Amino acid sequence: AQSVSQHNHHVILSEAASLELGCNYSYGGTVNLFWYVQYPGQHLQLLLKYFSGDPLVKGIKGFEAEFIKSKFSFNLRKPSVQWSDTAEYFCAVTSYSSASKIIFGSGTRLSIRP
Amino acid sequence: NAGVTQTPKFRVLKTGQSMTLLCAQDMNHEYMYWYRQDPGMGLRLIHYSVGEGTTAKGEVPDGYNVSRLKKQNFLLGLESAAPSQTSVYFCASSPAGKTQETQYFGPGTRLLVL
């Protein structure tokens, strides 16, 4: 069965620090990968997505993620975080065999110290 | 466009009571989804719909029923609420079943079952 693992449950950083949030998925076929963000009190919104082409994907607000197929990973990165990046981040995957379903990871809560 | 809206925003139920959560989207999307979000467990798919008049079970369908009588609306029903159904419920929609399509989320409904 498909699954998505986010091993970091809560990450605390200072402003200007670099960020990398891990995401690993288990599925052998062709997948599409997403990062969603949920700011405090708000609904989820798309940060970035990968479905083909360049494995380095750039999203909004300076975020990027790299798809490494051999490692089944899609880690999220940002070179310099801001206090406004405080949020919960969810990695998600869909596959061509289950086009209507998206599997979410358990989420990583990011807290930025001003 | 309002996007995806959910009614109500917050509700308290007693065990055994019933209620219906309403999701509406004005983007003419074909696919609609109901998720529940629980701490440390990310989002789990309850039911989804690939078009008007169709519904299908997701990962955690027990205790819930859904209906999609109109394309723009997707209702989630709890026939006999249980404390285990205390959660935040999110509705989402997407243009079609293509795996790379972004899902658009509503603001959520916070449900407390006593």
Q: What are the salient characteristics of this protein?
A:
A: 114 residues; mainly beta; globular; B: 114 residues; 7-stranded mixed β-sheet; 4-stranded antiparallel β-sheet
Structural overview:
The complex is a heterodimer of chains A (114) and B (114). By secondary structure, chain A is mainly beta. Chain A is 0% helix and 56% strand. Chain A contains no helices and 12 strands. Chain A has strands at 3-5, 10-14, 19-21, 24-26, 31-38, 45-50, 56-58, 64-68, 73-78, 87-95, 98-104, 108-113. In chain A, the strands form 3 sheets. In chain A, strands 2, 5, 6, 10, 11 and 12 form a 6-stranded mixed sheet that branches. A 4-stranded antiparallel sheet of chain A has the order 3-9-8-7, with no helix packed on it. The mean pLDDT of chain A is 90. Chain B is mainly β. Chain B has no helices and 11 strands. In chain B, the strands form 2 sheets. In chain B, strands 2, 4, 5, 6, 9, 10 and 11 form a 7-stranded mixed sheet that branches. Chain B starts with a strand and ends with a strand. Classes of the chains: A mainly beta (114), B mainly beta (114).
Summarize the structure.
Chain A has 114 residues and is mainly β. Chain A is built from no helices and 12 strands. In chain B, strands 2, 4, 5, 6, 9, 10 and 11 form a 7-stranded mixed β-sheet that branches. In chain B, strands 1-3-8-7 form a 4-stranded antiparallel β-sheet, with no helix packed on it.
